[in-house]
Amino acid sequence: MGLCASKGRSQQSQEKSHEMELSRAIRPWEFLPVTGTRAGLLGAESGRMEGWVYPLKIFRDFHLRFHTEGRALAAEALARTITVRPESATILYAGDTFRVSETFFVPVEEQGAVVIFDVETEQPLEIEAAFHRDFQLEWPAALGATYLDWAAAQHAFYFGEEQRKFSALVGSPTATEPHGEFQTNYSESQESSFRLGLTAKGKDRKFIVMAGSLEGRAAAEKTYQHLTSDYAQLWKESAEYYRDYLEKTVSVELPDEQLQRAYDWSRVSMVQGMVTNPTLGTGLVAGYRTSGESQRPGFAWYFGRDSFWTSLALNAAGDFSNSRAALSFIGKFQREDGKIPHEISQGASFVNWFQDYPYPYASADATPLYIIAMNDYVVESGDTAFAREKWENLRKAYEFLKSTYDARGLPQNFGFGHGWVEGGPLLPVKTEYYQSGLGAEALRALSNLARVTGQDELSKTLEKDFEQQRALVNESFWIADKKRFAFALDKNDKQVDEPSVLATVPMWFGLASEADAVPMIQQMAGFEHQTDWGMRIISGHAPKFSGGGYHYGSVWPLFTGWASVAEYRYHQTFPAYANLRANALLALDGSLGHVTEVLSGDYYQPLSTSSPHQIWSAAMVVSPLLRGMFSLSVDAKTGTLTFAPHVPAGWAHFAVRNVHSGTARMDLAYSKDSSAITLEVNCTAGLVCPLEFKPSLSLSAEVLGAELNGKPVPFHVDINGQDQHAVVRVDAPSKSNTIKIRIRKDFNVSYDSSLPRLGSTSEGLRLLSQRWTPNHDAMLLELAGDAGAEYELAVDPGQLASVDGAELLHAESGVQAVRVRFAAGEPGTFRKTTVVFHFSGKLSQKR
User: Fold this and answer.
1) Environment class of residue 711 by beta-carbon count within 10 Å: exposed (0-12), middle (13-18) or buried (19+)?
2) For the stretch 720-746, what's the b/e string if a residue is b when 16 or more beta carbons lie within 10 angstroms of its beta carbon?
3) Would you say 797 and 805 are in contact if contact means Cβ atoms under 8 Å apart?
């Protein structure tokens, strides 16, 4: 999607980007969720579903039969296509003489759901809906004895229990021929069903309503009637809710359609994690999966660290209200000693959850993450009042964190709750680099929170403590001769030398020096660590590795997102872009529009235990794009926006709109050609918008000058070992502004990775590292690829003089390609090669 020149075309482009729809042929095994804040339908593309009105599970194994021409046809055998939208999902069934569209819809704020059937038939047809009653509270609570009756007045089955507090209805205004479950001495059936009335011929619409309540039968009946009468308006309002959400948060217009769609859907997936429990309040749940015959729907309860990692993406996207709600929710269950909760079941109000179960405070890392997430929210939103309001929570969290320090001053996992790793052969350890890095970053975060709340002396003390802690952490875990960080320290303070992607968490926050971070990132860019679908927790060559190991070999999109943000921070754009694309492509595969929790480390296949709609996995599309590739950051107190993009080769145009910066909002439109980088900046009327624009350039590039609205402005160049950034700081007035940075001799390389076929092993290209000659007239690119395979890289046209080790192809549409071939070998083996790009002399091609 290119940048639109006129206002009218820009509006059309934005409207088009919000036509959110994904469709494909049915995969009957894939997860299909339709959720609101108070209810959900969770099932599979086959059409078999379970229904929830939180925290109640109403039914499971909901399915259809079509009665026509003297036959009863199982619907799942006729499922042909699935189409998903943010507010609904539609399965199209087709028979010889009919087709039926079944649309599952959950209103955003209602305690119920609607299933709508649009029928088209040549012969008389009747739909039968069947299900198993499963009327219970979410794990670990229970209702005891429950029952099912037919309520003739509502044409619905009534679900009840002995105390008459919990109620539900499932039915339809046209429901007939009810058959309830039964049990006798001689036979039994757990299935209940009803029919929706005959469609003689032509087109017809039928629907089913599910409603539930924790306040008795009258409340459930009221909701049932509301959904029955007003479902069409509620359907429209829900679609508008998601359109409004996409328009109010940070939107992008990208030349990569896959990345564009994945980003939009990931914003939707994140907000679908917001759940209102009638007895607990509103917060972020971790994810969704069917519960089957149990009452555990994936991770559809509240998790501390899940909420905090997701809040960083919500802040980046400008969704401060939901970020604030998520932080408030977790904070109100803080333990008296300051420890932050790990998880809170939706059934927690009905059991002695916080005293009788081992899960509520199981993790040690939720506590420092709470401080970090609070600071990120305050910095990005400018809501310093929230920091003052929650200061006692923050103080207590810090006191708990300090209580976990060992004699050296490192926060411990052992004895205080798990760090990242919860079980498996990587344990036991005393503390992880991941955990110790979070502890250090929490000090920096708390220092800033003290400063913005007027506690200057405390802020200075904490800042000094942070600097000491950062040095201690890095020195304790750095293995100098191997140029990498240890995974952990064992109980004897000995380094556990197992290189792990968990090291990228301290790197996300910039805790490691460039000299230390870059070599380790480059080690993890190879096939041992990086699969085509994301990052393994440890190397595939490690003795303790297992591709199915939840914490010792699997691939988490969470890890992949951590790595991508860290890699962009240290200017390692090749693995960063590959990891961003891996997560983005997962959002368009599997459960459509959602990113799964965990995949095999051996094959492109989600683990059998994975929650297919995992909220922080979706966040790891948003954060790597906004915080990583675009390096967007806001200091709301000063209203300053920093924009430091690392742009893939061939991206001549893109836009980032509705960026919140203090009280201002900005639209940014980037364009580039061989002579200049141009940024169009639109700022909220009546305000001046401070902006630091820092686009990445290759080390071969020359910066000739910078302008704001045609007038020269100062600039300088920041150089690191991988690239350089032209830095322009301006106060953009409240109108259309143009920043132009004049350049020459810039050169970029990129590779658009893809997912393999389901069940396959990795087969994509790895761009391991780049090196430049001292006078920057040549770049050496180290690559790894599948034996016997060939790949094409995109490069900026017009800059190359010659290429060694690859074939230079013709330029098309402003992008030139380079083809790289790897030597033949055994299937599944990988080769390395080096390609050298020369930028002076006569054009030639060498193989």
Assistant:
1) exposed
2) eebbbbbbbbbebeeeebebbbbbebb
3) no
pLDDT confidence of residue 9: 33
Mean pLDDT calculated for residue range 438-452: 98
Would you state the pLDDT for residue 828? 77
Coil, strand or helix: which one is 393? helix
**Per residue in 792-807, pLDDT tens?**
999 987 778 889 999 9
In sequence order, what DSSP letters do the residues of 236-263 get, joined into one string?
HHHHHHHHHHHHHS-EEE-S-HHHHHHH
Q: Are 755 and 532 in contact (CB under 8 A)?
A: yes
As a whole number of angstroms, the distance between CA 345 and CA 349 comes to 9
Question: Minimum mean pLDDT among 332-341, 682-691, 765-774: which range?
Answer: 682-691
Model-level pTM? Answer: 0.95
Phi, psi at 249, each rounded to 5°: -95, 175
Structure tokens at 30: 């894939």
CB 76 within 8 A of CB 88: no
CA distance 5 to 847: 42
pLDDT at 10 exceeding the cut of 80: no
**What does the CA dihedral 830, 832, 835, 836 come to, rounded to 10 degrees?**
170
Decide: 130 and 193 in contact? Cβ < 8 Å: yes
List Cβ neighbours of 87 (8 Å cut-off, separation of 6 or more).
Answer: 105, 106, 108, 235, 238, 239, 241, 242
Cα 414–415–419 angle (5° rounding)?
45
Write out the two tokens for 66: 């079509």
Spatial contact of 774 and 758, defined as CB atoms under 8 Å apart: no
Indicate the SS3 state at residue 824. Answer: coil
Burial 247-274 (b: 16+ CB within 10 A, else e): eebbbbbbebeebbbbbbbbbbbbbbbb
The gap between the terminal CA atoms of the chain, to the nearest Å, is 35
pLDDT in tens, 200-217: 999 999 999 999 999 999
Q: How many angstroms separate the Cα of 743 from the Cα of each of 382, 644, 677?
A: 36, 16, 7
